[in-house]
Amino acid sequence: MRTFAVYRHPTKGYEAVKHGFSWPGFFFTWIWAFAKGLPGIGGLLLLAWFVIQILNFSGEPVLAIFGGVVALVVVLIVGFNGNEWRRNSLAKRGYQVVETVEAQSPEAAIARALEEKGVESKGGESLTELGEAPASMSFPARFAGIFIEPGETFADIVRRPDIIWPLAVTVISGVVFTETMLAKVGMERIIRNQLEQGGQAARMSSEQLEQAVSQGAGIAGIIAHIMGVVAAPIYLLIVAGIGLAILNSFFGAQLKFKTAFSVTCYSQLVGVLGVLTGLAVILFGDVERFNAQNPMPTNVGFFLNPLETSKPLLALAGSVDIFTIWGLILLGIGLSEASGRKVKAKSIFLVYLGLWAVWIVGKVGLAALTS
User: Fold this and answer.
1) Per residue in 181-230, pLDDT tens?
2) Which end of the chain, N or C, is less packed with Cβ atoms under 10 Å?
């Protein structure tokens, strides 16, 4: 059991803040700060994150080590002080402490505080009907909530599903990444790197290589501009369709497509962090070694030398990606909430994981056949 201070605002409802170390603040720093209504601190932490990325991708070992030390100091400061910052912020915004209780979670702490105040379910009425439940979360709160409190956040999403904002953010982040890559690296260099890293360049004369680069860059550039816009919506529609089929056909749920698509869009917002990491690689890394097929340091394959690693192993190492696994976990949590928790998040996650494993096996097999 943990100790929580429960605050109440006359119009904004209840908030519960844990005493002690803030693990969400430790792991998610600036995302956590913005989600908890600390924009000033969030802005400073975001600036610190960018500085740390510059140090990490500077190419200088000493600066990279210094960046790691700075990162550790920053996350520890947020962890030890985060909850105190929240309490001070709530007090300044008109919240008042109503109870200090022992509970397992913020939601349980609020419920217990309400019970001790005599505000509890009566005659079949829920706390929502009594006007004690918080209002629907804003998009920024939902965005940050999927990292910090995914269960509570997806419950709110299921109650009021929306598509425009999460889809727009995903598409915009994809376009920004693509256009930055094309502007900073250039399609000709991308094609050249792929031919060199794949070993094809070694079998070409200088004239053949230049011709292949020139012809490939023109077509690939057009495709890249188009895919930067349409790739994410197509992928999300496929993932949502699979989720709808899984829950309705195999588990007997009655999930609506809008809800499934909204949950899917929000669960895949973790990819925005991947995009930020990829942008750091493009802006501060070595463009001569840039690999457009694996541009983010979120899997083992990113760190392998394509010229010294077999294609099947490279395909396998590049497929087991941190953000893909994270997105599948969130998808399981969200679709479980959408089913009214009739289907366990673990069951949904394992189904998606199995389908993903089949996809990886196919990629590795194709790489083996073409190597």
Assistant:
1) 999 988 888 888 888 877 777 788 888 888 888 888 888 888 888 988 99
2) N
E strand or H helix that includes residue 101 = strand 96-103
Structure tokens at 210: 């230049």
Strands 13-18 and 2-9: antiparallel
For residue 124, what pLDDT band results from cuts at 50, 70 and 90? very low
Our CA angle for 147, 148, 150, nearest 5°, is 70
What radius of gyration do the chain's Cα atoms show? Answer: 24
Q: Which two tokens stand for residue 33?
A: 């700060």
- Rounded distance between C-alpha atoms, residue 1 and residue 285, angstroms: 45
DSSP string, 39-73: HHHHHHHHHHHHHHHHHHTSS-HHHHHHHHHHHHH
Minimal CA–CA distance to 263: which of 348, 173, 175? 348
The contacts of residue 353 (CB under 8 Å, 6+ apart) are 328
pLDDT value at 235 more than 80: yes
Question: Residue ranges of the alpha helices (H) in 93-163?
Answer: 106-116, 139-148, 150-159
Q: How do the domains of the chain map onto residue ranges? A: 2-118, 164-370
Mean pLDDT of 68-96: 91
Separation CA 78–CA 80 (nearest Å): 6
User: In b/e form, how buried is each residue of 151-175, taking b as 16+ CB within 10 angstroms?
Assistant: bbbbbbbbeebebebbbebbbebbe
| pLDDT at residue 262 is higher than 90 | yes
* pLDDT given at position 130: 40
Helix, strand, or coil (residue 298): coil
Residue 339: how many other CB atoms lie within 10 Å: 24
pLDDT for 253 beyond 70? yes
Per-residue tokens: 362: 């196919």
Report the share of the chain in percent with pLDDT over 90: 39
